[in-house]
Structures are given as structure tokens and as C-alpha cells.
């Protein structure tokens, strides 16, 4: 059964969609069947893979509202082993329309159930908010990958996100784990970046990904061409970094498959001393 990874951070501008697109693409480039699901009404993951925004096409909105099947929503991409379920701006209405339906938090989980044997990795691009769409993604996910910048303001809100993860575990998805925290737009030359990295390492330990994503012009240009970085310029530092991140996550996944006790332990990340983090932020 495939692993479902939600890429989430309620703070905008941290490289969340860039991470979702390029991580999913790197999985596919490693010859692993991968599905990217755009759960954000802004639909940037959709356009970032070259799909036009089309209200009539079956999208995440239709799946959440029970107006289509996941198989019907699958769209091919430039990479042979990467598929996408696109989004549209009408998805923003789901936050209101789902309130009155039965089990609204489980809509995406139920929709994905038939696809989990077909794809080894399913990556969910969440909106920059802790709303019902993000809640659906986290209930459907096995783990959460948190992209963030190496800035002290970026530390604010992490405790809120982790508190949300804890509440989702308690109420809806007890197996939800932290996949990792990945530093994006990273400039290792600055003292601030080094200080924030040390702080995150202290709190997250091995949950801080060994791979960081540098600021990179080619990585920033790729979405405007409707391509992931490894298709736009595979030799760019941005593409190479996401390939390394994919290999890191695949290695952890395979290790957990071989040693179930590791997977069990991975679901429990170290408890954050939130008070200390807030002071440092």
C-alpha cells in the first residue's frame, strides 16, 4: 500500500507547492508510480505541471463533493510515472459546503482508498491555512512534510501546526506522523540560517531533513513553464536538491517497511518545548 504524504504549512510563501511538485516529480523520476493531488484552491500545483485551469474537468472539488471518482480525475504529466488530480478555484467553496455533510473530515481519505495500491507515493499539496481542506488532507495522510524557511518568523506557527497534528491524531487519524521538516530557500552562508537550523535540529532531531533546498533561479522559473525543475533543468541545484530529498524519504520508507518497529517509533516525534520555541521566535 502506498504512502500518503501531506505537504503542509499554514504560513504562505515557504515553498510548499514547489516542494509538492518537485518531490512528487522526483519520486516519479526514480521510477516509482506517484500521484500528486492539488488540494489548494489557488491551483498552483495544477498549473505548475502544465495543466490549464478548467472548471469542467473533474477536480479535487468534485471528489470531495462526491461528484466524481478518483480514477476519472487522474491526469497524465510530462513524466511517465507521475499523475495529478488537479484543483480549481471552486474548491474554496468546499470549506462551506462540506460543513453539513456526514463525516466531512474523511471525504478525501475515502476517495483515495481505491488508489493506494496503485501508487507507491501520493503527495497532497495543502492550502496555506488550517482549514477543512487541510484537515481532509491530514486525515487522509500517513505523514506530514513541513517546508519552512530558515527565518525566526517561520518558527512562529510551527507549534500551532504541530498542535493541529496532535488533535487530528486524537480525533481522526492516530497513525499520522511527522515525515520531516525541510528547509526551503536556504542560504547556508548566513548566520541566521545556521542559527535557525541549529534551533530546529535541537527540537526536531532526526525529523529535520538532511536535505535542504537552496534559493535557485531555475527552480523559481520552472512553474511559469508548466514544468517541474528536473524537466526544466535537471542540472540545476534546485532539481538536484529535490532528487536528494526524494531519495532520503524513499530510504526512510524502505527502512520502515523492513523494520516495522522503526515505523512505529517514527510516528512519535520528540515533544516540542513550545514555550522555549516561542521565546526564541
Summarize the entry for a quick read.
This protein has one domain (3-280): Rossmann fold, CATH 3.40.50. The chain has 15 helices and 7 strands.
Topology overview:
Blueprint: E1 3-7, H1 16-29, E2 34-38, H2 44-48, H3 60-64, H4 70-73, E3 75-76, E4 82-85, H5 94-97, H6 107-112, E5 121-125, H7 132-140, E6 143-149, H8 152-155, H9 158-171, E7 177-184, H10 191-204, H11 217-221, H12 229-232, H13 237-258, H14 260-266, H15 274-280
Helix pairs in contact: 1-13, 13-14
CATH architecture grouping: 3-Layer(aba) Sandwich
Count of separate DSSP helical elements: 15
Largest sheet: 7 strands, mixed
In the CATH hierarchy, what is the superfamily? P-loop containing nucleotide triphosphate hydrolases
Envelope shape = globular
Q: Helix/strand/pairing class, anyone?
A: alpha/beta
Strand arrangement across the biggest beta sheet: 3-4-2-5-1-6-7
Q: Give the topology string: H per helix, E per strand.
A: EHEHHHEEHHEHEHHEHHHHHH
CATH class: Alpha Beta
Would you tell me the overall average pLDDT?
89
Number of strands: 7
Beta fraction: 5-15%
Radius of gyration (CA) equals: 18 Å
Here the CATH topology equals Rossmann fold
Helix content estimate: 40-55%
What number of domains? 1
